[in-house]
Design a protein that fits this description.
With 171 residues, the protein is an alpha/beta fold. The protein contains 6 helices and 5 strands; from the N terminus they run αββααβαβαβα. A 5-stranded mixed beta sheet has the order 2-1-3-4-5. It is globular, with a radius of gyration of 15 Å. The N and C termini lie far apart (34 Å). The structure holds zinc ion (ZN). Residues 56, 58, 85-86, 88-89 line the site of zinc ion (ZN).
Length: 171
């Protein structure tokens, strides 16, 4: 169950996403890593900033905090994401040993351009992982997060990522 503390930290993720939107080369996806309710790392998508398609908000905060702590294990940390993590970021959370994933807008709340595949879902990755202690909670401040993104019914934006610059197979 999401707590008031979860909502507070999600608000920080939303503020961070907005900062990304205002930053040249940044994008409007925010993430926060927190432990015991204390934010330890915040970040937004920096793909265009660094010419790095892997620089999603989640990857940015994981890299920053691991580098700062000189560790590869973020056990005990919760990651807050304005958008449901993609497959890459979900796997990165698993590799980093993150204990809990909390996200705002889910796949069905936003346009498909924000995801890399048609059916792979964060929950499927986690169900198949060698982990039975990872918790996931979606839909926290879902409305406040969803308004940051194109709706499922919107046309494909011109600036969508290369993975989406063609007509998808109607499967
Ligand atoms: Zn991602």
């Amino acid at each position: 169950m999401a707590s008031e503390q979860d909502r507070l930290l999600m608000r920080i993720a939303i503020q961070t996403a907005r900062k990304g939107q205002e930053t040249p080369g940044g994008e409007c996806v925010g993430a926060v890593l927190a432990r015991d309710g204390e934010p330890a790392s915040t970040g937004f998508n920096e793909g265009a900033m660094h010419h790095d398609p892997t620089a999603h908000a989640e990857m940015v905060v994981i890299r920053k905090l691991c580098a700062a702590l000189k560790t590869t294990s973020l056990k005990g940390y919760t990651i807050y994401c304005t958008l449901q993590p993609c497959g890459m970021c979900t796997m990165a959370c698993l590799w980093a040993g993150i204990s809990r994933i909390v996200y705002g807008a889910g796949r069905s709340d936003v346009h498909y351009i924000y995801f890399e595949s048609r059916h792979n879902n964060t929950v499927d990755f986690i169900r198949d992982a060698f982990r039975d202690d990872l918790q996931i909670e979606g839909g926290v401040l879902a409305e406040a997060c969803s308004v940051l993104y194109a709706k499922p019914s919107d046309p494909v934006p011109d600036d969508s990522s290369p993975a989406h610059q063609q007509t998808p197979n109607p499967i």
